[in-house]
Specification:
Structural class: alpha/beta
Number of strands: 20
Radius of gyration: 23 Å
Distance between the termini: 61 Å
């Protein structure tokens, strides 16, 4: 009997709480209920907000606790915590004190998974890097699975996985914060201040990220960005092989005269990379460092020439009257927006702003002055972004407009744009002030753009 079969048998009849009824947790709830567990699903939102997810839980016979007091009176013995909830909230500490086992879908998956695991984390670029690794491994002929912070929860699939399969995961700092397992190959794309509205400080954020390699063995591999100081500083903490990548240094994976080299061998001409931007060259170097000796050069080149990118990442939505509209809703931090702006040779019309997650915006001012001619601001971070621009002394070079809604922002951009212009959604902020996630934000932007006449 496999570990997955033993686990499924062990939870039959157990009282289990799942905190969070998001799209990613719904398959977990279904898996636990169908395995015979007595499941209680808890969420801060009400039935109307949850919509179809609420109806599916009712169909499964799941008990529901909704609303502001959703964390109160948890008496179950096993608690699956949503990644976005800290482990040290009072209700979870009380549950742990009385003996409840607090875990997460990803932690149980690591414990049960029989396959090789390649995992990617970082402040920027992790979704693209994860997807690149998945595409390279899949095209090489490996039986592969994609999950973690993208895709769907893989715990429900663990019974179908085999020893020689490869699981490719994107992991957030939230998922890694209490992780007690590490993959065989781990990648940290880069590190910069992020999610400081959730983590106590930047040090805790970095510490969470290090769990991707804390439990590695000597034969495992850690991939780090030599050009990123906070990433490179982790080398002495590693217990495994470390593979560095760099655009500027003579690292094992490096860029020389437009060619990515791996262990001294030419691997990829960056002119073959379909998706734009030097940050995506870094993503390819990280992916190549992860799959080195697993994937042939010709397969890597094939992926580079054909892979068109992940939705919501500098995604061309439409060209209307000579104006190109790009959706980069994934840009949830200033650094992401800076990377995106560097892709465009001419000044753009940019829609920006969103939820304030407690990070500084100072570094965003100069790139806005350099790359933006009209800045349309919306959301809680609008003041911070405008203040960053003003601090450069070049605010008079950019027309700044406040929008009252996304409809207003898109219509304003349309009115300001002329043939040859680029309109770019790059929020530099998270979406949770107005939306459930960045996908919902990007999809609304695309809908509004496609409705323009």
């Amino acid at each position: 009997m496999t570990k997955a079969e033993i686990f499924r048998k062990s939870i039959k009849g157990k009282k289990i709480t799942v905190i969070g009824i998001g799209i990613s947790n719904l398959p977990l709830i279904k898996y636990l209920a169908e395995a015979g567990a007595e499941v209680t699903a808890r969420d801060a939102h009400d039935a109307q907000w949850l919509g179809d997810r609420y109806e599916e839980c009712v169909r499964l016979g799941v008990k529901l606790v909704l609303g502001p007091d959703y964390l109160e009176n948890i008496t179950d013995d096993i608690i699956f915590k949503t990644p976005g909830l800290r482990f040290d909230v009072a209700q979870l500490k009380a549950a742990a004190a009385r003996g409840a086992h607090i875990t997460s879908e990803m932690e149980v998956f690591f414990e049960l998974c029989p396959s090789h695991i390649i995992a990617v984390t970082g402040s920027d670029g992790k979704t693209t890097t994860t997807t690149l690794i998945y595409e390279m491994m899949k095209r090489m002929g490996y039986r592969t699975w994609l999950g973690g912070n993208i895709g769907h929860p893989l715990l429900a699939d663990v019974g179908e996985m085999r020893e020689n399969d490869f699981v490719i995961l994107e992991l957030s700092s939230f998922q890694l914060h209490t992780m007690k397992y590490s993959p065989q190959i781990g990648v940290i794309t880069n590190l910069s201040p992020n999610h400081l509205d959730w983590h106590t400080d930047y040090d805790e954020y970095i510490e969470a990220k290090t769990n991707i390699f804390t439990h590695m063995s000597r034969g495992d591999r850690l991939v780090l960005n030599a050009d990123n100081p906070d990433s490179a500083a982790l080398v002495p903490l590693a217990h495994s092989e470390v593979r560095m990548f760099s655009k500027t240094l003579d690292a094992p994976i490096c860029l020389k005269e437009g060619i990515i080299y791996a262990s001294g061998e030419p691997m990829l001409d960056i002119s073959d990379i379909k998706i734009p931007g030097m940050h995506n060259v870094e993503n390819y170097m990280a992916a190549i460092a992860a799959v080195e000796k697993l994937v042939r050069r010709d397969v890597i080149v094939e992926v580079a020439k054909e892979f068109g990118g992940v939705p919501h990442r500098i995604e061309l939505v439409r060209t209307l009257d000579g104006v190109k509209y790009y959706n980069s809703s994934i840009d949830s931090s200033p650094n992401r927006t800076i990377n995106t702006l560097n892709v465009f040779p001419d000044k753009v019309i940019m829609i920006s702003g969103g939820k304030d997650k407690g990070i500084p915006y100072d570094d965003l001012g100069a790139p806005i002055a350099d790359h933006v001619k009209v800045l349309i601001l919306i959301g809680a971070t609008a003041d911070k972004i405008e203040d960053a621009l003003k601090s450069t002394g070049r605010a008079d070079e950019v027309e700044v407009i406040r929008a009252s809604s996304y409809e207003d922002a898109v219509n304003t951009a349309r009115a300001k744009a002329a043939s040859g212009d680029v309109v770019l959604l790059s929020p530099a902020s998270t979406s949770f002030d107005m939306f459930r996630n960045f996908e919902e934000r990007g999809n609304l932007f695309k809908k509004l753009v496609n409705e323009l006449e």
